[in-house]
From TrEMBL:
One of its GO terms (molecular function) is peptide transmembrane transporter activity. Belongs to the bacterial solute-binding protein 5 family. This is Peptide ABC transporter substrate-binding protein. Keywords: Signal, Transport.
Amino acid sequence: MSSGDSLDRRSFLTAAGSAAAAATLAGCSGDGGDGGSTDGGDGGGGTDGDGSDGGDGGDGTSDQTLVYARGDHPENYDPQQTTSGEVAKVTNQIFDTLIQFAAGSGGQLEDGLATDYSLEGTTATLTLREGVMFHNGEEFTASDFKATWQRFTQSDYQYYLGDETRSGYGPFTLGDWIESVDASQDYELTIELTQRYAPFLRNLAMFAAAVLSKAQIEAMGDSQADLGAEPAGTGPFQFDTLDNPNERIRLTANGDYWGDGPNVGTVIFKTITENSTRVQDVINGASHITDNLDSSGFQRAEESGTATLLRKNGINHGYMAMNMARFEPFRDRQVRQAIAHAVNTEAIVNQIYQGFATQASQPLPPDVLGHNDDLDPYPTDKDQARSMLEEAGYGDGFEFELATFSNPRGYNPSPVQTANQVKSDLEDIGLTVNINQFSNFGPYLDYTSAGKHDACFLGWYTDNADPDNFMYVLLDPKVEMDAVPDGQDWVSFDTEGYSTLNVSGWANTDYMELVREAQRTYAEGDRETMYAEAAQIAYDESPWVFIDYAETLRAVNEAVVEDSYTVSSVGGPYLNTVELQ
């Protein structure tokens, strides 16, 4: 980002953010959604960034089928109803965003449905791409973005999605920042913000900011929650079939796509929950690509001879949150620090994760602006942990619940093993941990979003490669400052305005002031200093046990043409460019 009062397209275009047989599916509509804190959003398609029309408009599409294997199967594919990365992997093929992340970059932005954009003070101006068609036959114009924004955030809009239905992304992606949208010209957008907000252009590239069809929104009427059963975007692939009984989704090529590709005729997402089985599926050639690998899986892929392991530094964080709003002992900073000293995160990353992750020391991953290089991971010192518990008045220990998911996530590929490691470590200092294991991720997110946990495992893949996406989104409660009682550093989940993405209940006003000021600051150096200071506060106060930063790993079958699939730490998966032998 440039310094001063404005951010423009040039700054963002050059600045980085710190052999399967074709399967058939039986149609079956889905309902419901994931909700809660994201497990990773892989975000948007890709162009060359020069404002041109991009690729061949689908002329080179083959009749081949690309199969992507994953570990979970959500049933709703509306980008405004979910925070799940498993949903984003699919919706990113169907929808486009105004601005998008360049494939393989660490967060560099490029043209999407907009070909020019700038942010001056509190005004964002965008010029839109002409001649882009939605899968339902409607032409894309500025009014589609306006209707998208209104449906997601404006309670007085006739087709508002609803407070109970929309995802937690609504407020922090668009809702809290946009005052008005002028869509009076078909190919020009003027967006007035409620305040200076540095991450705004990056927010427009997030999967939750995917542009929906105004015609489809209006056609859904009072049934907005059903849009995810038949999503229609402008992306390289169009929705075909949702087969919930068999946990598969079928997409077909959009021959009128404005960008690069697609190069295959069909994409199938299929679910295989067991890591070992899913990796073997790729090795055998029944799937082409898979993700969320554990240590055994990536070693088998490397040694197979028929698959390749692709790896890239991730922009993510796996953590254990301690819920101060629910569990009184966690309100004592010494208790939280004692737990941080007792949990052997070095053993977790080296022995359980087998070295494809590194120990975390703070909320911000190393490749993000504001990461504080002076902070080291908490050293494992169980004697010190016992002493701190004694000083805090908990020398006799206490008992609490640790909620965990079961299916692998990139930031926590072995959640049950990790929970058992934490349980063992904390038993060594006199604490009793009861593991509450969830078999499905959606209900797990519902549970943690409701604040029913004492402690829980979660993680976050960056949505926009901006520090705000970690520091504000996950650890600021988003309540008014005066809603935090004097002398207290937590608030209850039912506080007005509270964001349940903050699953710790933490509300440290010094921290909140810093990250909110950093939002309003456009000078990169000043933002970096503020976030480094905020990271120090988070380190000292320990609302989380900072566990790991994980590499982004993908196993790819030899049938995929080399270099046609690009692994990205933000955005994607970029399936529009994939070619098969």
